[in-house]
Design a protein that fits this description.
The protein is α/β, with parallel strands linked by helices. It has 2 domains: 7-212, Spore Coat Polysaccharide Biosynthesis Protein SpsA, Chain A; 238-292, no CATH class. The chain has helices spanning 20-28, 48-58, 72-82, 101-111, 145-148, 163-169, 180-189, 215-232, 239-259, 263-276, 281-292; strands at 7-13, 35-42, 62-67, 87-90, 96-97, 117-125, 131-133, 160-162, 194-205. Strands 1, 2, 3, 4, 5, 6, 7, 8 and 9 form a 9-stranded mixed β-sheet that branches. α1 (20-28) links the parallel β1 (7-13) and β2 (35-42). The N and C termini lie far apart (60 Å).
Length: 293
């Protein structure tokens, strides 16, 4: 085994035995092979352990760690402390990659030395790997903090970051059950440059029992995250940029609440948006959409 693997791939897993082989096989099929795959089993109670042991015996680039169930953020941080690569990327155990994902990204880092994080788009699939959509949210390059305040545009399963980013700013905060990936990329956006590439690099599986499927909990976590960010990194943006970001966030939250029939709560969020940017067009467009609907 290469004692200094160029890329570290981090995969936390919990009771995903049905999908683990596809995730791991997608890594092993990469056209770029100088990597280590660190898998942290977060206390699985299915037969994940047996599957992981088989793969670990089959390929020395795979390292497996096991812990009591503590959540995927703790699992990811465990892997980050064990990582030896110059670049770090993440792959959830129910998702999988296109074969040349690593090769494409490393080539892009070579031609874009000022960039610290490179990410792309996802293909959404169901539990049977049947494609559902190739539609992606709007994503951005460069100094992306002002866009990140509005919503998390960085796809965790496509991102590759330089190791020094984690050395300098730390890993997952572990403070919240959901949206810890948002916290990570938002913090990184205060200091590092991002490059978005419109390439489909990962297949993202949608299932009912996913933590990320709870949109209400995600909005609550996101609100706490952006407030923390403004307090900890006040110089990342101008006051106006912060205010616009907060206003757009509250409009998004209001429209979501209205779509679920909670109009009274939605108007409460709209008032928050107005308190930040009372003359901003996007706020009034959001208000009109909610009233007319």
């Amino acid at each position: 085994m290469d004692e200094n693997p160029f890329v570290t791939i981090i995969t936390p897993t919990y009771n995903r035995a049905a999908f683990l082989p596809q995730a791991i096989d997608g890594v092993l099929a990469q056209t770029y092979g100088n990597f280590e795959l660190i898998i942290v089993d977060d206390g699985s109670t299915d037969n994940s352990s047996e599957i992981l042991s088989e793969y670990q015996n089959k390929d020395e680039r795979i390292r497996v760690y096991r812990q009591e169930n503590q959540g995927q953020s703790i699992a990811r941080n465990k892997a980050i402390t064990e990582a030896r690569g110059e670049f770090i990327c993440f792959l959830d155990s129910d998702n999988y990659w296109v074969p040349d994902k690593l090769e494409q990204q490393l080539n892009l880092f070579e031609t874009n030395p000022s960039v610290d994080v490179i990410y792309g788009d996802i293909v959404t699939v169901d539990e049977n790997s049947i494609e559902l959509s190739r539609k992606n949210m709007k994503r951005y390059s460069g100094n992306i903090s002002r866009w990140m305040l509005r919503d998390n545009c960085v796809s965790m399963n496509t991102a590759m970051a330089r190791r020094r980013c984690f050395d300098e700013m730390g890993g997952m905060s572990g403070q919240r059950r959901v949206a810890d990936d948002y916290d990570l990329w938002l913090r990184f956006s205060a200091r590092y440059r991002f490059l978005y590439v419109p390439e489909y690099w990962a297949y993202y599986r949608v299932m009912e029992d996913q933590i990320s499927s709870d949109k209400t909990a995600r909005f609550e976590s996101n609100e706490a995250i952006i407030r923390d960010f403004r307090r900890k990194f006040p110089d990342a943006l101008t006051d106006k940029e912060f205010d616009v970001g907060f206003a757009v966030f509250y409009v998004r939250k209001a429209r979501y609440l209205a779509s679920t029939g909670r109009k009274r709560e939605a108007f409460g969020e709209l008032f928050k948006a107005l308190s930040y940017r009372p003359l901003e067009k996007v706020v009034w467009r959001g208000a009109a959409a909610i009233v007319l609907k």
